[in-house]
Design brief:
6-stranded mixed sheet; elongated; 10 helices; Rossmann fold; 2 domains; 5-stranded parallel sheet; EC 2.7.7.65; Rev_trsase/Diguanyl_cyclase; alpha/beta
């Protein structure tokens, strides 16, 4: 097995067992191969396994390959998975149709192993490079947490979902106390180590449904859904006490936290963010190392 593309998964979708066997034989030494025999099965497996690439036949019983591709591209969970049509249709109109609805390539049958292998290698490599660039663009390089750009990109979708399903959503702003003084006294390398250790604790203490972001400098945002203000307050206090006992790099560190719950009177994320920030300001003004809540516009 080569090292260039470790553990990449290719989903082969074809209603012909012989075609599946041929393609699997070409690819199985370098990829994890999954198979499906219908469009619906392809959609289900794409959601479940998140393959790195899909080889998709056009003529299948039930949902056609074209319609399957359209549905893959309509779903946020699968739209970035590259699709290569592998089909007996060899006219230019069909190829144009396939590329227009979102496929990255079009291979005609009978299957030529060298061509199949080369096209799959190319598009899996491109997908991995794209994923790496996205990872770098959406994550803070020091802490590994999501960054400000990611939070601002995804938050409207989370707010819309909370409104649609009438579920509570809360925001915490966590700010390290006297962090400039720590940097001035101990140096920026120690300051970075403290940020890394506090980030790891925040990430460990949050659920998979929560989004932990380094929003800037020594400030972290935690978006929690579903989570009421009372639940967020409890979680904030747990994390605040744990951080006070953490002693990263042998230095006593505390945090101040502002919390707000999304309200019908909030027109957008900035409204909730401002209320949480105002609560954080009160926590700082009242002596730091505490959590303050924003009740002002919460609809009970």
């Amino acid at each position: 097995m080569t090292n260039e593309l470790p553990l990449s998964t290719v989903l082969i979708v074809d209603d012909s067992p012989s075609n599946i066997r041929v393609m699997a034989a070409v690819l199985q030494e370098r990829y994890r191969v999954k198979t499906a025999t219908s469009g619906q099965q392809c959609l289900d497996m794409a959601l479940r396994h998140k393959p790195d690439l899909i080889l998709l036949d056009i003529e299948m019983p039930g949902i056609s390959g074209y319609e399957t591709c359209r549905e893959l591209k309509d779903m946020s969970e699968t739209r970035d998975i590259p699709v290569i049509f592998v089909t007996g249709r060899d006219n230019i109109e069909d190829e144009e149709m396939g590329l227009r609805i979102g496929a990255v390539d079009y291979i005609t049958k009978p299957i030529r192993p060298v061509i199949l292998s080369a096209r799959v290698d190319t598009h899996v490599t491109l997908k991995r490079q794209q994923d790496r660039l996205l990872q770098l663009a959406m994550h803070d390089q020091l802490t590994g947490l999501y960054n400000r750009h990611y939070m601002l990109e995804m938050v409207d979708q989370r707010l819309s979902r909370a409104r649609r399903h009438n579920t509570p959503l809360s925001l915490l702003i966590v700010d390290l106390d006297h962090f400039k003084q720590i940097n001035d006294t101990h140096g920026h390398i120690v300051g970075d180590q403290i940020l890394e250790q506090v980030s790891a604790l925040l990430n460990q203490q949050c659920r998979t449904e929560d989004t932990v972001t380094r929003f800037g400098g020594e400030e972290f945002l935690i978006l929690m859904e579903p989570c009421s203000l009372n639940q967020a307050h409890y979680k904030a206090e747990v994390m605040r006490h744990q951080i006070s006992e953490l002693m990263p790099s042998g230095i006593e560190v505390t945090v101040s936290i502002g919390a707000a719950e999304f309200s019908d009177s909030d027109t957008n994320f900035n409204d909730m963010l401002k209320r949480a920030d105002d609560a954080l300001y009160r926590a700082k003004a009242n002596g730091r190392n505490q959590t303050e809540l924003s009740h002002a516009t919460v609809v009970v």
